[in-house]
Prior knowledge:
Residues 24-88 form the RNA polymerase sigma-70 region domain. By secondary structure, this protein is an alpha/beta fold. The chain has helices at residues 7-14, 18-39, 46-60, 70-91, 108-115, 120-128, 134-147, 153-160, 164-189, 195-200, 210-222, 236-239, 269-279, 285-290, 377-384, 419-426, 448-459, 480-491, 511-526, 549-565, 597-604, and strands at 253-258, 261-266, 293-296, 303-306, 367-370, 388-390, 406-407, 431-433, 464-466, 498-504, 530-537, 569-575.
Amino acid sequence: MANQPDTATVVAARAGDPVAVDRLVAGYLPLVYTIVGRALEGHADVDDVVQETMIRVLRNLGELREPEAFRSWLVAITVRQVRDRFRLRNAAPDTPLDPDLRDPGADFTDLAITRLELSGQRRETAEATRWLDEENRELLSLWWLEASGELTRDEIVAGTGLNRQHAAVRIQRMKAQLETARAVVRALHRHPICPELAVVIEPWDHRPNALWRKRIARHTRECRLCAPAWQDLVAAERLLAGMALLVPSSAVTAGLASSSGAVSYTTSKAVAGKLVAKAGFGVAQKVLVTAVAVTVVGGGTAAAAYALGADDQAAPPAPQVAAAPAPSPSALTLPPSPAATSKSPAPRRTSSAPQPVVPAKETSAKKGVGVWKFTGSKAALKDVGAGWYYDWASQNNDIPGPAGVEFVPMIWGKQNVTSATLAEAKSEGDVLLGFNEPDMGGQANMSVEDALAAWPQLQATGMRLVSPAVAYGGDTAGGWLDRFMTGAKSKGLRVDAIALHWYGSDFSAAAVNQFLGYVDAVHKRYGKPIWITEFGLMNFSGSPKYPSDAQKVTFIKGATAGLEKRSYVERYAWFGLPAVGDSVDFGLYKDGDSPTEAGKAYRSAG
């Protein structure tokens, strides 16, 4: 809300100020798109409804008597357009596209999961929205924005035409249906699926609808295996912070070239072009027709608009939001903390024919790896050409590296902030990594307040300090990292660089720009050097869980090339070096001289 145009902008736009009109459209397009997208889930006419809504707003702006009520007026117009489309659909229903054939950019829930980096119960909640009745999806689209701080209850009341009491009752009914839908999603995602449920859903066409929601929910209540789906459901309100706004889908994404290579712009060209053509607004043509580049950073509320004029050579890159990262390494049976016992290596796997070892080229100082103990770690570190490594601990006693490869210590969590551990870390070098995924249960799991309270002890070492590495949402206004950085600044604490983790569930070639866009967005928010201390491709809640070798190679080549070009990226580290046991599908080396296909690609990087 804080980043949307103020009343003065509305007044100026109403008076015909072209700059104000541009700002108004760019600032509120994500809000309109989010309401329409959630209400009309999964249908190709979302963009059309957004366009028609904005056209009506522009055409009728001069009639708005109370500029301070612009948001309520905008929401009311949006809801009316959604209802009109519902009526048209019900009069001539179309056949929804098979979910297996949907492009993630064309399906609003898939888009939300991908761009807002959703996992765990947040992801379940997003998927559950597909199961809501039509009228509840409309209400959800507004209540979701209320829960995440984008709308007020008064604006919902004005937008729906309900009184406050009726709105409260309707919202409670919608939330009850959403909870039922969440239990349905959980039961369907259970692995292996309940045998009795498998029989129940055999006739189902796998399209969410009210009848099957009721049938599956009834089974989960009566089934011993499925009943836990109703347990430990975090209140939906608590899951929605930082999940509010999305921008128009990737169907309107255009690729532009810049001096640093191909840069993807998330634009609203298609929307803007129709707006100007239909509304007849000449004042907004430069930004709206040429390129209104509206980007919501990390699913938060901050929107950035960039424009290319007729004489411009290139505009600043609009960062893409990363594909959904997931907790790491907690979701894997790997040692997540320095206190964990190192795993024994799995038996060596051999191929039918020995592969020749290709010597690594000159080492990149940026390129590194996360390493846990396995046979051949020292030789693999040398062969892969790493300039540095870390092992999530304050020392590398169990994993000594070869000469010339720098070890960087970490203070993993709150329990590791001791004088002995800090002294140990200081003896290892000049740079200290902060806490590991403090925003995740099962990892450091620290509140922002705890991290800020402990930070002065890290600062007292005199070492160069890299921020805590959040699992997701590093570019999100009000997210864990944003609050930590704000608190550090207010307390006069020093943070010299930003650490990030990123895991992509989109295994297509688009993953490269999704990753680099996230890195760009974080750098833009904080203006500090970036360390990517974990990155890779993994789908933690879907299938397939891991990409093919060819997909890994394509991603590694593109991602590392982009990281090497970015001067503000100081270090990056693949997760991880070992390809043994449960890391065989994503690691780089089976032993000291047996790289996987991904290992060969990473060895050539830098």
